[in-house]
Amino acid sequence: MLQFTSSSANEAEALLARSKKFMDVASMCVEHGLYDLACFNAQQGVQLLLKALTLKKLGYIPRTHSVRELIGILAKQLNARELDEYVKTHRLQLMALEDAYISSRYFVKEFTRDDAEDCIRIAMEVVGLVQRTIRDP
Predict the structure, then answer these.
(1) What are 22-38's pLDDT values in tens digits?
(2) Which of 48, 57, 123, 134 could be joined to 42 by an S-S link, Cβ 3.0–4.6 Å?
(3) Is 115 exposed, middle or buried (0-12, 13-18, 19+ CB in 10 A)?
């Protein structure tokens, strides 16, 4: 059985707090027309939330940036079928969020307000789903 140490607990709480900050900044970026940064921050917010929960529940942080993979790890290890179903039914939206994270960081790509709002909406859906399913954050 994995032991969750106070150091891990502190790290998980710090990741949760940072996740919320990324989500807040994503919304502020939309207000200021920074659509690429809105997408980047929305993906980062979800990624850190999922990593924090994986640390809390499973005792480690997976070395991946994929939201789909992180949800899949939680779904499998916690036997959370709702999470698994969400990935299957929202695969394209989650791929778009992951693509926006990569594109906004490494490529010259124009993002629109609609793109940014879609990224934030998808991110918020994942946050809500995880909160309902895992009942932790």
Answers:
(1) 999 999 999 999 999 99
(2) 123
(3) buried
